[in-house]
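Forum: Protein Structure Q&A
Topic: Joint prediction for protein chains with partners

I've read a bunch of threads here and the consensus seems to be that you should model interacting components together rather than docking separate models afterwards. I'd like to see that in practice. Below is the full input, 616 residues plus whatever partners are listed. Could one of the regulars post the assembled result?
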Amino acid sequence: MLGEAIIKGMAVTAKNFLGSYVSEERLPTIEYPEQRQPLKEAVRNFPFLVYDGDDWHKGMRCVACQICEKECPPKCIYIVKSKDKKPDYMGKAQFYPATFDIDVSVCMSCQICVEVCPFEAIKMDNEFELSTSDRFGGLLLDKQKLAKSNGYYRHIHPTEAGEVDARLAAEKVKAEAKAKADAEAKAKAAAAAAAAPKPVSTPATPAAPPAAPNG
Amino acid sequence: MAEFFDQIFVNLKHWLLGFVPAQPDWLQPLATVVISVAAILGVFASLFAIATVIERKGLGRIQNRPGPNRVGIPFTDISLFGFGQPIADGIKALIKEDLVPRAADKVVHFLAPLAMFVPLALTLLVLPMGRNMTAMDIDAGLLFFFAVGAGAELAVFMAGWSSRNKYSLFGAMRAIAQMISYEIPFILSTVSVIMIAGTLSPVKIVEAQQTYNGWLPDWFVFTPWGLAAFLLFITAATAESNRSPFDLPEGESEIIAGYFIEYSGFKFAIFFMAEYFGMFAAGGMAATLFLGGYAAPVEWLNWIPSWAWFFAKTMGFIFFLIWIRGTVPRLRQDQLMNFAWKFMLPMALMTILAAASWHFIPDAFTRWLVSSTLVVAPYLLLGRGLLAGRQIGKRAYRYAD
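Posted by a regular:
Agreed with the consensus. Here's the joint model:
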């Protein structure tokens, strides 16, 4: 019959209308600023710089290698390399970024900077409430605004941060072992040199080829 | 006590008129007009503000979301359940830039919102909003209502044409086609009421429906011809006020905003308000013609003031429009025209026949039977005839799956 479907449709909408006052399940809206949905672990939007320890400047992992700056597709990263060096997490002297700016109004959240960083220094944040009344300065994040602690990283992405920490620890152990081995080898060589003061040639025992590291 | 509240606004007006000096003699009539018009504009503008919130909240609830629920009193935490929204909307509309296209016909572009608002506001004058509460009680009130209300069509075309935008012109063309087509069933569906009541005066039509007959009031909607005419009237009124499912002149998904695409700021707000005024006028007229106007539905509820009943019925119509808007998708242009000319027009003519048979058959049972048959039979036949040969059901896609 003509008009039957309209009656049926109106019954459906009436049911939805009245049901939304009765049943909580019918109203899936989350009243955002007061109520929040927990973020998923994989949520990411803009990059930040990781630092170890308590001092953001001292502990910053970034060594200003500028790979991310070169890889960034929309070119939103701007880095100035420092003139001096500071020790990194392994105590090795490294350059550090004198300036590190990310323009988040340009950033497209592609995560390529994170993928290419060899030092695990830049990671993706899950902070999304970045609205500001200053559209130029407010959206250009400098080094200090970008720096966030490794603890924060562990807090927002626990799984990923765990992997990164394990890898860095392994590298540190490896480096320490290598340094130890190098030191031992050096000591042994020195001892051997001391034990054999005579310039008697010993062709049967070939000395460790010093040219090997270059090869 | 009930009498006091029923006549409170009438007495208020008389009290205010007491302050107006009697000399010169044109001052009193002028004061009457000013007071009535100010009251009508104030009341309906606030109703418009409330209706926009109710519409947004109602549509939201239909779609299982809460709708606006934030705006309250500024600088406090009082949220008023979102009923502060119209104030924010009004301020926004006022401070928005008023853009006029460079190629637009500036004068016509400026006049169109006013030309839309004035006729639709004028139609409110003839509605009896309560006992003794008609701003302009003229004998041909119904004629005035339709004649003046038709002026809005000109304004729609003025807006569409003067904007010099192809979308707005499309919208205006659609609006003209639609509004003129639906004007005919809109007016014809009231003819049956005029025939039975024997008058064109809305006040007298309401007075003809003031009696009670057992458990039902003597409203025209409770007769077979009246029910059919009422349904035709509200359908045509929906189309006249360009509301969904007849919102082709606006058609957001096709022509963006239709005829008021080039309007911004307060000019747009005036269009918006005029549309709601048109809806109030149509709802008020539907209540006047078919739902007993300011009469209470049962006799023992007569202690509630008559004006409260009128506004309740008008807002009920608004709510019905919101409900329809949340339910029915937009028609296609050919469906719209077919519906107007092949269904609404014959049905409107049949209601006239049914009303005539109701008037001339004295026996209650026979006239119910004849009148109902004259309405239901064409409805079923037309429904069957129009749907014959159409494939209705799930749409099959030949290529996309």
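Confidence is low (pLDDT under 50) at residues 211-215 of chain A.
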